[in-house]
Amino acid sequence: MEVILAQPRGFCAGVVRAIEIVERAIDLYGAPVYVRHEIVHNRHVVNKLQRKGAIFVEELDEIPDGARTVFSAHGVSRAIEDEAARRGLPVLDATCPLVTKVHIQGRRYAGQGRTIVLIGHAGHAEVEGTIGQVGTPVHLVSTEADVAALPLADDAPVAYITQTTLSVDDTRSVIAALEARFTDLVGPDVTEICYATQNRQTAVRDLCRVVDLLLVVGAENSSNSNRLREIGVDEGLPSFLVADGSAIDPAWFDGVEVVGLTAGASAPDELVDSVIATLRNLGPVKVSQLDGIEERVEFSLPSELRHATSALHPARVTAA
Q1: Active-site residues: which are they?
Q2: Is residue 203 within 8 Å of residue 262, measured between CB atoms?
Q3: What are the φ/ψ torsions at residue 172 (nearest 5 degrees)?
């Protein structure tokens, strides 16, 4: 069997930054450090940080007074920020800078008097945080049908913003539906969706042209990982989302000669390695990597950690 790896795959700069914020906080302040929501959507990453001394909670009232608190990479609402400030919780904000950019866009459009439409998936942590950051009512849509059902006049001043981890193609079709309906519409171009999302989707499309089956390493609640699997399905390939090598079903590979392998932006390389190890148990495997974009994006850590712990760890915020 031949296994071809997508390039890029796995951790992005925002995920690396978020994980390092938790690790450095534990090094600097000692355990426990409380993290509101999973720092990223990957159980392996969460479990590893728990072993180091992180405690993950869903609500601030689960955090003791005075305890060091980290907001996840997905971002939080202003109400959460205000509640943390009211309680005097010392907060380190691990929100991905590209998610923060969406928050800023939404507030700017709202300040112009426009009704905000957010393209995203209901219930996702990033979506809930973004809605709570804009400061005015937000209409959530995920399909063209949702656009048609919006209770707005066609000539209303409207602006759209997007969840960062969506499929570029799906987002483009929803934007086209908004453009077809509203005569006074503004919003960012699809090229402003998260660079890591775009790069991984492009890499998977290229990969699908040369393989018989697609494996995506990622968590079931990881939006970007699910989108990668859906691209494989759209390309007509058997496509599976797996947490690690233990989720592999040997029956998938009957008659398969070339396997494509990628990973969502919150899946570490060691999980990709575990999938390859499982495939080697099925028979001889030749591994190669498809040519692709080499990401060199870096996001700075909060100054509090950057200055106080520079001697503890070298910076590790280059996207993998």
Answers
A1: 126
A2: yes
A3: -60, -40
Q: What is the largest CA-CA distance in the chain?
A: 62
Does residue 157 contact residue 188 with C-beta atoms inside 8 Å?
no
Q: What is the pTM of this model?
A: 0.90
The mean pLDDT of the chain is: 93
Q: Which helix (H) or strand (E) holds 66?
A: none
Give Cα 239 to chain centroid, integer Å: 20
CB-based contacts of 297: which residues, under 8 Å, 6+ apart? Answer: 12, 13, 195, 196, 318, 319
Distances (CA, A) of 254 to 204, 215, 240, 276: 22, 15, 15, 17
Take residue 1 and report the two structure tokens written for it: 């069997």
pLDDT tens-digit series, residues 178-206: 999 999 999 988 777 788 999 999 999 99
Q: DSSP 3-state helix, strand, coil percentages of the chain (rounded to 5)?
A: 45, 20, 40
- Four-residue CA torsion sign, 272, 276, 277, 282: positive
**Separation of alpha carbons 125 and 14, rounded Å:** 15
Is residue 72 within 8 Å of 18, Cβ to Cβ?
yes
Instruction: Name residue, tokens 């907001």.
Output: 71
